[in-house]
């Protein structure tokens, strides 16, 4: 009996079993090949980053030096490009290493983890500070008082971020959050007089966390009577604008590590108005399905 007749005589179930076995062999060989690779080999020794002026990029450059990751390349781009690359990899369960920070909606959408940082290149917990111009308290005391009172948590910010990522207009997402959290907003504005059309200028970077906070606070100040303008810039120009007085405030002062360079550069030229959120974090981030846990693992 030739091979064709043998196959013809086999049941459909038997043929299916053969096919599944063959696929299993392919998958096993693929998994085996991945298991044999180091973390660096799996991602071509590339870390997917964001805009080059961001403090997390400076911290990542420091981490590359601290851990002796001579083969590694830190790729610059934007926050949007980084999250797009993450989604593409995550959907296929491909390996990827990114510059991550929380609060960020990606930790809600995806199962991610920070790599341990025994050398402390990224510092410990961070805080988000409101940074104002030196004349803010004198020229716009009402806004200064509200910004000094401004405090919210990761869950608050996350609600606004996720709404925006899901397609809602940032202004509408901000207003919806305010409508649902009026008691908290009232605690920021309590006892503060309204103004009549005074201008106020925010500068911000296109990070999802900052888009959320700036839109919320813009709405709060508008309700207080201010005419608010928001200008999107990169991290360096953001700090410069507040330091030289061409902008009134920024809500994205990540300290003490992320924006340490800018805080030191403009020391004495701005006011640290207050801390809006504590317990935030930056660091190298990977999907949970990747079998690495520390930046030390990248040296292999």
Automatic annotation (TrEMBL):
Pfam families: OpuAC
Every ABC-type glycine betaine transport system substrate-binding domain range: 38-180, 201-299
Location of this chain's protein in the cell: Cell membrane
Stretch forming the signal peptide: 1-22
Keywords from the UniProt entry: Cell membrane, Membrane, Signal, Transport
Protein name: Glycine betaine ABC transporter substrate-binding protein
Organism: Sporosarcina aquimarina
């Amino acid at each position: 009996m030739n091979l064709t007749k043998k196959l013809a005589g086999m049941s459909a179930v038997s043929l299916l079993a053969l096919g599944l076995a063959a696929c299993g062999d392919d998958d096993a060989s693929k998994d085996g090949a991945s298991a044999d690779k180091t973390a660096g080999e799996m991602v071509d020794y590339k870390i997917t980053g964001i805009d080059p002026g961001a403090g997390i990029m400076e911290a990542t450059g420091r981490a590359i030096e601290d851990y002796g990751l001579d083969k590694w390349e830190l790729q610059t781009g934007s926050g949007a490009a980084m999250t797009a690359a993450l989604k593409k990899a995550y959907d296929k369960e491909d390996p990827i290493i990114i510059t991550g920070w929380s609060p960020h909606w990606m930790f809600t959408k995806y199962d991610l983890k920070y790599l341990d940082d025994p050398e402390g290149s990224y510092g410990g917990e961070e805080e988000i500070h409101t940074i104002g111009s030196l004349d803010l308290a004198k020229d716009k005391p009402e806004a200064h008082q509200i910004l000094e009172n401004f405090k919210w948590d990761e869950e608050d910010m996350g609600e606004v971020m996720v709404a925006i990522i899901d397609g809602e207009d940032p202004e509408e997402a901000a207003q919806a959050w305010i409508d649902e959290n009026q008691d908290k907003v009232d605690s920021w504005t309590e006892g503060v007089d309204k103004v009549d059309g005074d201008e106020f200028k925010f500068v911000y970077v296109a990070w999802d966390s900052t888009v959320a906070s700036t839109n919320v606070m813009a709405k709060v100040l508008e309700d207080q009577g201010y005419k608010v303008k928001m200008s999107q810039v990169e991290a360096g120009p953001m700090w410069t604008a507040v330091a030289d007085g061409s902008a009134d405030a920024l809500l994205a002062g990540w300290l003490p590590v992320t924006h340490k360079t800018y805080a030191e550069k403009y020391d004495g030229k701005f006011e640290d108005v207050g801390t809006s959120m504590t317990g935030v974090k930056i660091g190298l981030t990977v999907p949970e399905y990747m079998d690495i846990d520390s930046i030390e693992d990248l040296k292999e």
